[in-house]
Amino acid sequence: MNGYVQGDPMLCIGCRTCMIGCVVAHEGRHIFEVDPDGYDFHPKLKVIKTFNVSVPVQCKHCENPACMAACKSDAIHMKDGAVQIDRDKCIGCKSCAEACPFGAVQMVTLKNEANIDGTPKTVANKCDLCQGLPKGPACLRVCPTAALRFVQEEDLNATVQAKRLGTLKLTVAAEAQQKQTPVCK
Amino acid sequence: MGVHEIEDAALLFVFGYNGADSHPIVARRIVRAKQKGAKIICCDPRRIETARIADMHLQLKGGTNLLLVNAIANVILEEGLCDYDFIQKNTHGFDEFVETVKKYTPESVEEQVQVSAEDIRKAARMYATSGRSMILYGMGVCQFGQAVDVVKGLANLAIMTGSFGRPSVGIGPVRGQNNVQGACDMGALPNVYPGYQSVTDDKVREKFEKAWGVKLSPTPGITLTTVPHHVLHEEDPKKIHAYYIMGEDPAQSDPDLAEVRESLEKCDFVVLQDIYMNKTGQYADVILPATGWCEHDAVYSCCDRGFQKVRKLIEPSGDVKTDWDIIQSISAAMGYPMNYKNTIQIWNEVIELCPGFYGATDEKIEKNVCVQWPCRSKEEHDTGTVFLHRDGKFAHPDGKAKFAATDWRPPQELENEEYPLSFSTVREVGHYSVRTMSGNCRTLRNLEDEPGWIQMNPEDCQELDLKHGELVKVLSKRGYCITRCLPTDRVKKGATYMTYQWWIGACNELTIGNLDPISKTPEYKYCACRVEKIKDQVWAEKHIREEYEQIRSNMGIKVKGAVA
């Protein structure tokens, strides 16, 4: 199963440090350039705030990704447990951004890369789980309240199991049954 | 109390304090308290981050703080939830307090406060009965024309429930500026020497005169916020002729900027000492460039009275000096030579002259990382004071806490026909204070940049036909600025909010110079405004770009992309 980064709105304080951590992880030393136009500021996750919720929204690395199916230029692939966009192959057709049910894909214009004819290059951008970084996703390492976690198969299974137990407790008949039958020792 | 105690409170009563935007590291403690099972009551006109995770959010109408605080006290009294033993032993003034507060029934204030009497009662019961209730308050209390009274009102709640002198209780002011506690500790107030020793006390003055070898004035000075008045409206000898400004940008941060500019222009001589050029610098006769935080050694005081060391990491480059070296050089040029070699020598002099800091030696701060004053003994066992008023002993001469109830008064300038919306300045997490420092951080500028935003309720936006991101003109009686519209249901209908650091969207053009009579802090949190649609958005976008270039050129900024 692909892992994914998930935020907890009860811990998130909406500070957007994750968004900066993301850019720093992907732009490296470029962020030290004095000219803010000298590097790309395209966070691959976005903090969304509503009346009751603040939390970053990012790619869930679907097992059967709508973005990948929609891609017209074979630029989206499953690689090392993550859905990846190949910027060189991306033709900027926006199909993936429209297809993604979570709003996790955004079109971005690159400052330091151009099309062959010199026009600005616009490509699809989304979470890549910081592949290649030895310490894993930067967003969850920089979060001051540890509101983000990397969810893998066993984590998801644990969550599901906890919910199953909750369901059981809600089932009156099952609970009554438990009380009725004494334990023989 | 210490900031770390927040985590272990049973109930946090967060009043006019937006930790997530002002101090994310303190906000982390609030989140952790919640994780550990603390109840949270959040009193704030906006749906701030703390409000989302709170057990109760009292979304009061701005400017009604004391009504709500007094009504909560009223419930605690009426329902007999006071700690009478504590009141009897450790306080005085209770009867007068009861007399004032008894008329503030929840029912009598609910309409003005816009919180139901039932919710006020519920919050009061929760606060009074948790066993370990801690109050945190911030600029949503202090930046009103009636501020000190509300602080006292909150203290009343803590006194009447015996919530003092134990871990994880009490009342925590979470300060507006980094090291504002340190500035006060070091006597950057008009009425005290370092260590809160009064300038009018003969014994104290003699001590400092002896230590420094000069005659000192027994008269308190004036506060920062009354400088414009003393430049523009006073006659000699009260008139101010020279203004030496260090690490402050009044032409950006003070209320009613038109008046501030006039006073800076008319003042005979203005000196600015800062690490970057800023708006005030445009009016300065002399600019003294200082070093930044990683270019010098220093001691900070945290909001919980904790002294902490700041260490030099890199050699400063260019024509700059540390702040203490600049002061030393100016002093020498004015005929009073100082001969400090380093900050440790200065610190040693500070603690020698201040009994409350006497035990906080450099070695002790180094060893313990943080030492909270009072720390009166140099012995190793005295590692400072985490929380004050242990065993109900207070700082008044008789050792008792004093109840102080006052009646509510409304903000000075209320909404009216011409200016139908209320206006308040706030913070945002990415930019610190007047952005002298954070405005030079590229990634933070990428997150938020000129001309900033005005937060408005979506209904108000709809009435004015405003969309997200559209440039709008915001006006008050005193001035106007241009900023972008941010519709959000986190703010109430009729209320607007802007952060105060933007050069173009400079919201202090709008704010009012109404001061709290005691603290002299301006009413940044309340005035009346009007928002106007700008039909020609193309013109507006061009206008703000030109304005930005103009400000940069006035400041002499030449590097592309650099802010200052």
Q: In words, what does this structure look like?
A:
- Chain A is of the alpha+beta class.
- Chain A is built from six helices and eight strands.
- Chain A starts with a strand and ends in a 5-residue tail after the last helix.
- The model of chain A has no long low-confidence stretch (mean pLDDT 91).
- With 564 residues, chain B is α/β, with parallel strands linked by helices.
- Chain B has three domains: 3-174, 3-Layer(aba) Sandwich (Dimethylsulfoxide Reductase, domain 2), CATH 3.40.228.10; 177-221 and 290-323 and 338-380, Rossmann fold; 421-554, Beta Barrel (Barwin-like endoglucanases).
- Chain B starts with 10 loop residues before the first strand and ends in a 10-residue tail after the last helix.
- The model of chain B has no long low-confidence stretch (mean pLDDT 94).
- Chain A binds chain B through residues 9-17, 19-20, 23-24, 31-39, 41, 49-54, 144-145, and chain B through 19-20, 24-25, 27-28, 31-32, 34-35, 47, 49, 52-53, 429-430, 442-447, 488-490, 559-562.
- Radius of gyration computed on alpha carbons of chain B: 24 Å
Please state the overall shape of chain A, judged from the principal axes of the Cα atoms. Answer: elongated
Q: So what's the overall shape of chain B?
A: globular
Query: Based on helices, strands and strand pairing, what is the structural class of chain A?
Result: alpha+beta
CATH class of chain A: Alpha Beta
Poorly predicted regions of chain A are: none
Largest sheet of chain B: 6 strands, mixed, barrel
Structural class of chain B: alpha/beta
Tell me the number of strands of chain A: 8
What level of helicity do the residues of chain A show? 25-40%
Helical fraction of chain B = 25-40%
Mean pLDDT score of chain B, rounded?
Answer: 94
> What name is given to the CATH topology of the largest domain in chain B?
Dimethylsulfoxide Reductase, domain 2
CATH C-level of the largest domain in chain B: Alpha Beta
Find the CATH topology of chain A.
Answer: Alpha-Beta Plaits
Overall radius of gyration of chain A: 21 Å
Most extensive interface, chain pair and sizes: A-B, 31 and 29 residues
Q: Distance between the terminal alpha carbons of chain A, to the nearest Å?
A: 43 Å
